[in-house]
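Posting this for the archive.
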Amino acid sequence: MQASRAIKSPTVTPRAFLRVAQVTFGLTVLNIVSGGAVRLTDSGLGCPDWPGCYKQHFTPPLALHPALEFGNRIVVVAVCAAAIVALVCAVHRAPRRGDLVALSTALIGGIVGEAVLGEIVVYSKLNPYAVMTHFVVGIALLTVACALVLRAGRAPGRGVAKVTPRELWVTRLAWGLLLLAVVAGTATTAAGPHAGGVGAKRLPVPLADMARTHSGIVLILVAVVLGLLYLLEGGGAPQSVRMRGRAMLAAMAAQGIVGYAQYWSHLPALLVGVHVFGATVVWSAMYWFANELWPHTPEAIPVGAGSGPRPATSELGVEPANAVVPG
């Protein structure tokens, strides 16, 4: 009788984990955009019950509002499934990384919290404060998903700052202003005509006042980013940092143009939806820029006994040309 062999659990390569993280990130963006579509089409109460659409029927009828509301719930389920897959892959990743396991776990917890908030939104008949919190939590999930992608493509650890402490401080200031801009933008939508459903209460603040507050914060943010880019150019920051800073500024400028266009055209739903998507782009661009301030070398992955380490894929999933790929 042959001795039983130990069954080894399957391992996940860094490149495969990066692909899973990228899919999770994309679904997280889709969750925010589809949630915005529900609100902008007045479909927030298309399914009056939760988690099923109706107490008698789990699935929605063939009608626009129920289908959109239930479709957003399906996206949440897809994000949760992707996060669970990411956690399983992080546990079986070779080499295993504690930071990737922690981020995957946090993403699952956040999605569960987001689902509970969705239930509160439905049963509170689209309370504006609940809807605002729902969106802000979605942005928090986007942050975790973005961190998962960027960390999956680099070596672990904090890294070494390539800019001065002053530039790091200004970057933190820009992060804070961007967070204020997102919250103010959410409040502006809550005070506007897109309540998410017929009869839903609005934020008891004049729309014009909230719009001016939001735009004022954005203008200060852009001024701070311009000052940051000036410091980076004059201080000899690496080209990659300056390039990402310019890309971040371009995303903010495009978002600002859409914002003013939607306001002066009386908030058409399509433009507001583009603005919601733009918020995810600007937020991700800020994280992408800040990540480059602490550059990391590609992760060294042992490929077997007697073999030297080979670089892992970069954060964009491109394997270095001099990588030794085992046969």
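The longest strand covers residues 300-302. Residues 304-327 have pLDDT under 50 and may be disordered.
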